[in-house]
Amino acid sequence: GDAPAAGGGAGGDDDAIVMGFAQVGAESGWRTANTASIQQAAEEAGVELQFSDAQQRQENQIQAIRSYIQQQVDVIAFSPVVETGWDTVLQEAKRAQIPVILTDRAVDSQDDTLYETFLGSDFVLEGEKAGEWLVENTQGEDQVNVVELQGTTGAAPAIDRKEGFESAIADAGNIEIVASQTGDFTRSGGREVMEAFLQSQPDIDVVYAHNDDMGLGAIEAIEAAGKVPGQDIRIITVDAVKDGMTALSEGKINFIVECNPLLGDQLMELAEQVVAGEEVEKRVLVEESTFTQEQAAEVLADRQY
Ligand code: GYE
Where is the Periplasmic binding protein domain (predicted)? Predict the structure, then answer.
């Protein structure tokens, strides 16, 4: 008959996939765009999203994942704030037969059966692109002193962007990293660390910041010290969010390696596949490029984030 079944709703919502997503935080422009992409893609795909913000703390993320397990969501996705320390909670998800998708950042685990797939950028490649630009653009210069603003200690993008950059500059005899410290991927962190570098380092030629926000913080510190960012001190960053691209087009940043935060659609597609029990690639990459000052000026008007 027409009588609704017990517990049944009016719509087809009972069939909707429920995804628990444990986000890192809201530390950067990149993260804000990433969150918006995931929320919008979920809505468009009819995926019911449970969303939590861990404020960059692993224990908060673990707690969120445990609560998703308890709620028996269909799929868990998360962007691990750091690489290590996930095995226990991921084993709990596996025992509960809830598939897990790593989004944006990887985990460092011996057991790759603890997750279905990792959707994210190649951070080593991003670091290499940053280093290669520096090598090409400092040929013939005597001594190039670089200070590095690292991302969150222990996070995949911090570890990999450092590694990629170091390997790209290794054979250039004139480039040296004279100081390297974490700014936690935030603007205030970048500013504070750069202030300290400007005090302790007599001769800084280049800032390599693992994201735009820290580079923008470094610009504030450089200007406050009476120097001209982009000229007295050249700046290389990663991400290519709108504020970074604006600074690049104004000449305050010299080069940006793109890291694309708009993963939402790809994530929902993968979620549908793993919930349906389909095989998916263990590693799914996001496409990205790089920008010079001229290129930034050209594409800025169309930049969505
Ligand atoms: O580059 C940075 C953010 O994990 C790729 O996290 C992401 C990084 C991004 O805070 O801005």
Answer: 25-279
